[in-house]
Design brief:
Layout: E1 8-13, E2 25-33, E3 39-41, E4 50-58, E5 61-65, E6 68-72, E7 77-82, E8 86-89, E9 97-104, H1 110-120, H2 131-144, H3 151-170, H4 181-193, H5 200-207, H6 211-222, H7 226-244, H8 249-256, H9 261-272, H10 276-281, E10 291-293
Parallel strand pairs: 1-10
Antiparallel strand pairs: 1-2, 2-9, 3-8, 4-7, 4-9, 5-6, 5-8
Pfam families: AraC_binding, HTH_18
Keywords: Activator, DNA-binding, Transcription, Transcription regulation
Domain HTH araC/xylS-type: 184-282
Length: 294
């Protein structure tokens, strides 16, 4: 999950009617720093009130809250309110600190944020494959590609992100390391055989459990049925192929395990809100950091 040249910070200043209940996305970014000049103080910043979630991809930084100090290394985040009694900075002589972050206004989401923070702590560990981190990456991708262009889309992402933090905080068993062994085996098999996936009957037989037991335990542990999990894996792989290759739609459908392009397009549209063709054509349009207005 290295950053490479994929860095950028995107700010949002949308206006919306006061009578609408919308969450407010302030900024989302990916950055890599290696200078002690990188230092923020929660009491001296002038852009609050804000909620900050910052997640380390590689390297490490330091987060201080009151008298507590934390090393924020890979797969660790910190959660803070601005203004507030905290500081975070790059430690002199340390390895390059690569991270993602999101800044949100507290209106509407503060109780949910506080609930998640009280359960996880202010410097929680989250796997890179966890739902909150996958969603944070997706929000950055959407901003990077110029697709967060109105307050409704921005509000939806903010609410989704804080909701995923709450889900992770309240039900960590939803994370893979807490899944029952048979569920992990099923997920691993799907992850590696999505292109020629066998039926639920065959999968359950392979694992030595009844298909009803597998369906029930898989859904309880992951929040998805095996079929929903399979479709998500396939669409994630299709998105990668659309971004990184010139393969045609029919070929991509075949590569990820769908019998035909028309059904693949139908599933892709249902899960992403757009067709594979429009998804591909929208890639790479935005290469510079930018502030969006309506």
């Amino acid at each position: 999950m290295g950053t490479g040249n994929r860095i950028g910070t995107y700010g949002f200043r949308f206006s919306a009617p006061d009578h609408l209940a919308l969450c407010s996305l302030f900024a989302v970014g990916r950055d890599a720093v290696q200078s002690p000049a990188y230092r923020w103080d929660g009491y001296t910043r002038k852009d609050g009130p804000l909620l900050l979630f910052q997640y380390t991809i590689e390297g490490e930084g330091v987060f201080e809250s009151g008298a507590e100090a934390y090393r924020i290394d890979a797969e660790r985040a910190f959660m803070s309110e601005i203004p507030g009694d905290h500081r975070y900075y790059f430690p002199e002589g340390g390895p390059e600190w690569s991270f993602m972050f999101i800044l949100m206004r507290p209106s509407l989401i503060l109780p949910n944020w506080q609930e998640a923070k009280s359960r996880m702590g202010q410097a929680p560990h989250l796997p890179a494959t966890s739902r909150p981190i996958r969603l944070l990456q997706d929000i950055w991708e959407q901003a990077n590609d110029g697709r967060i262009t109105d307050p409704f889309t921005a509000s939806s992402y903010v609410y989704q992100f804080v909701s995923e933090l709450c889900r992770f905080a309240i039900a960590p068993q939803g994370e893979r390391r807490h899944w029952p062994e048979k569920v992990r085996q099923a997920a691993r098999y799907i992850d590696t055989h999505y292109g020629s996936m066998i039926s639920l009957d065959q999968l359950s037989e392979r694992l030595g459990v009844s298909k009803y037991h597998l369906l029930r335990t898989f859904a309880a542990a992951t929040g998805e049925t095996p079929s929903e999990y399979l479709n998500r894996v396939r669409i994630e792989q299709a998105m990668r192929l659309l971004r990184q290759t010139d393969l045609g739609i029919e070929r991509i459908a075949e590569e990820v395990g769908y019998s035909g392009g028309s059904y693949f397009i139908k599933v892709f549209r249902k899960m992403t809100g757009r067709t594979p063709g429009s998804f591909r054509s929208e890639q790479g349009q935005l290469t510079l950091s930018r502030l969006y207005f309506d």
